[in-house]
Amino acid sequence: MLEVAKSPESQDNFQHVVSLLEDSKKFFYRLGDVEIEKKVSEMAEQIDEPLYMVIAGEYNSGKSSFVNALCGKRILRDGPIPSTNKITLLSFGDEVSSEEVDDHQCRMTYPLEALKDLTIVDTPGTNSIIAEHQLITEGFIHRSEVVLFVTSADHPFTESERVFLQLLKGKWDRKLLFVLNKIDLKTEEEQNEIVTFIEKNFYRLFGFEPKVISMSSKDAFNARATGDAELLQKSNIETIEQFIFEKMDYETKMDLKILSPLKYLVNVFDGLNDALSEKVSHCNSEIKSVEMFEKRLSNKKQDMTEYINKYKIETQSVFTRLKEKVDNFLNYYVNIRAIITMKFAREKFEGKFKREVFGVADPRTELERIINDALDYVDRNNEVLWDMAHDYIESEIALQRKINNDDSVIRKDRPFLNRGTDKHINIREYAKQFQELDGELEGAKAYRVVQSGFINFIILEGLAIGIVIGLSTFFIPNTLGIVVASILAGIGFSLFPLKRKKYRSEFMQRVDAICERFNNMLQFEFEKIIDRVLEDIGNRISSYRDNRWSEREEVNRQITDLKVLSERTKNLIRKSCSQ
To answer: What are the CA-CA distances from residue 415 to residues 191, 385, 396, 420 (Å)?
Structure first.
């Protein structure tokens, strides 16, 4: 176990890192990012273990041979073909031992004093024909606190090595030591050229020159096996040992132990912040899209409602024409001359009324036509509204399929309101209340007016004539009688205009009331149909907006939590670097 505290400041920093890792693990758990949560958990578990030095590089670059040379014993398999297929953690132990951890890891111990505060991690080679080897190595890099990168003198700084180094430095920002192995294959001049080549290309990538140490694992192992001091010095392994076992003192190791997880978190937090900000931007865009669509629906509702007024005007025209025809009929037929010439025949009168007032453009027929036209208009436009919703929902589903890479999302059939629905039936039922505009009924009413007027006329005129005859029989000039007779006669002759006026007034009031009721019914019922369709569409569409609102709120909470963790991480880095 790593001795954590040699100073109060060091102990304080260490405890803050432990706390940060624990809070970060909980954050990624809430986020549902199992992969990052696992990596943070692994770093938290190894925080008080010896420093992890990962040996990385292409297969056949001599990584395992280098570890064997350090130990002076062939404890790892090496050879010209990919020989390491697992992560091997080599730590201090009183004797050599090996234990399988899982399919991809094993732990070994070796009695090397330097391993008491350093764990050497041998990894499978990159650029191997066995693709899984590279994935295993890349999946462990986050746990490294310093990386010893081994490249071979016979093919140094290859393209695959460049890519892997970008992962090490660019994404994880790991402390890096370059080892140029197999220098026994090259002359000193060739070695210098290779080192210069590595330094220049590395500088081109990362903006600084790496520390490059040349060595020969083969010579180092043979020298230790035979006790050849000259060959050991020539192999240059002691320079590397001095660097990793002596120059990397306790404080350096503590800094790496603290800074490695912090740098990892900074990179993860920065990348996650960009991803979450993009999510928020996407949610805002989608919410705006829904709101624009809802505005289109609102505009369409206004257009449809205004258009329904056209049918109200048509209805008023129907009733206006009806009133005009009744006026014409009353003026022409409800008078003394017309009544006398018709000989007071009820069938003739009612027949004429029905033909001339209701015969052409029957109001009931016209009102039924208006209702059917309005229903057709509303149906057509409701279908347009559902088409708009359908297109929007299809675009949303296509987007979700693209995001989730999932073709299982299926569009539901749209519940379009057709002419067979209850709403259409209700309107027609409501329209039946206007059956009182029946030609026969109205003709009978008009006839009763004429009949009562005629009877009253006969009575009054008869009285007037009787008074005049009575006075003339007795040859008694009676001024009062003459006046009374004149008055009765005048009333009799004015009776029809008064009756006609009263009937007309009542009829017009009834027609106006019917017209108002019909138009109110028309507007109310059709607005209900329009509102119902818009409500159904709005409910379907608003679910997308509500989902985006909820998602945006959740992402914003995640961003807030992320900023707190990120600031804590950066403060710890600044504090560690300033000490």
So the answer is: 78, 12, 18, 13
Contacts of residue 112, defined as CB under 8 A and 6 or more positions apart, other chains included, come to 70, 71, 92
Choose between 558 and 338: higher pLDDT.
558
- List C-alpha distances in Å: 140 to 40, 338, 422: 12, 113, 67
Q: What percent of the chain has pLDDT over 70?
A: 71
Q: Which residues contact 363 (CB under 8 A, 6 or more apart)?
A: 318, 319, 322, 434, 437
DSSP string, 453-472: HHHHHHHHHHHHHHHHHHHH
Is 60 exceeded by the pLDDT of residue 495? no
> Cα separations (Å) of 197 from 36, 170, 178?
36, 20, 13
In 207-249, alpha helices (H): 217-226, 229-235, 237-242
Specify the higher pLDDT residue, 217 or 331.
217
Angle between helix 439-473 and helix 250-333 axes, rounded to 10 deg = 30
DSSP string, 285-315: HHHHHHHHHHHHHHHHHHHHHHHHHHHHHHH
We find that the CATH architecture of domain 1-6+48-162+178-256 is 3-Layer(aba) Sandwich (3.40)
Using CA atoms, how far apart are residues 307 and 380, in angstroms rounded to an integer?
13
Can you tell me the distance from the alpha carbon of 212 to that of 198, in angstroms, rounded to the nearest whole number? 8
Contact yes or no for 285/548 (Cβ under 8 A): no
Residue with tokens 């708009």: 388
The string of pLDDT tens digits covering residues 175-198 is 788 899 999 999 989 999 999 999
The pLDDT, as a whole number, for residue 564 is: 95
Place of tokens 């309005």: 374
**CA angle, 223 then 225 then 227, to 5°:** 55
Q: Which residue has the tokens 């009333």?
A: 491
pTM over the 0.70 mark: no
Please give the Cα distance from 106 to 206 (Å, whole number): 33
Cβ contact 283:275 at 8 Å: no
| Residue 321 pLDDT grade (very low, low, confident, very high; cuts 50, 70, 90) | confident
| Rounded-to-integer distance, Cα 246 and Cα 114, Å | 9
Residue 345's pLDDT band (boundaries 50, 70, 90)?
A: low
Neighbours of 312 (CB within 10 A): 17
Residue 499 falls in which region: left (phi positive, over 0), alpha (psi -120 to 50) or beta: alpha
Average per-residue pLDDT in the chain? 76
φ, ψ of residue 97 in degrees (nearest 5): -145, 160
**pLDDT over 70 (residue 324):** yes
The pLDDT of 89-106, averaged and rounded, is 85
Beta-carbon contacts of residue 348 (< 8 Å; ≥ 6 apart): 342
The helix (run of H) or strand (run of E) holding residue 250 is helix 250-333
Contact 154, 184 (CB under 8 A): no
Residue 561 in contact with residue 28, Cβ under 8 Å? no
Backbone angles phi, psi at 479, to 5 degrees: -60, -40
